[in-house]
Amino acid sequence: MSIKASKLIDEQINLAITLLENDGVILYPTETVWGLGCLASSKIGINKIKELKNRNENQSFIGLIDSEKSLHKYISNIPEIAFEIIRKSSHQKTIIYQNSKKIISNIANENNEVALRITNLPYLQKLTSLIDSPLISTSANLSGRKTPNHFSKIDKEIKDKVDMILNINVLSTNKPSSIIKINSKGEIKEIRK
After folding, report:
1. What pLDDT, in 10s, does the model give residues 53-108?
2. Closest to 62 in 3D by CA, of 130, 151, 128, 139
């Protein structure tokens, strides 16, 4: 059963944090598409999302963070080119980094790589700055189905099974983020445009 979110953004953020810290799953708007999220440190939350989406066990998740400072908390040896890309991008790219730290091992792949994006939405920056983990950000669709480009197109099954829906108006691109991979030498590979 979903909790009806308050109209006040701070109240919604505080309630979301409480739910996230108790292995909850939230449905929330991002700068790209609507996302399903939990703490990257919550195996229970991650399993709930996998079950909700009917997602393949081996697929990785994207984590949202608030700042470059947080990036240092989760990644060792960040190539300088990553900071150049972050600072020059008007729409933040999701970047796959090598050398993720143990604190986010739940979302790292078998090569210890992890996909992170620094959000540019003020409410998500605040939320992610107040949790001690990246926020999972996966599109709010059942696996194999088209990514919904509007809240009204999200399956009722998803809306009914999340612990909270954040009711916050944001300007979204309505398409998934572009993804690049940067290796330890600073070489870039485009994964998704």
Report:
1. 988 777 789 999 999 999 999 999 899 999 999 998 877 889 999 989 988 999 99
2. 139
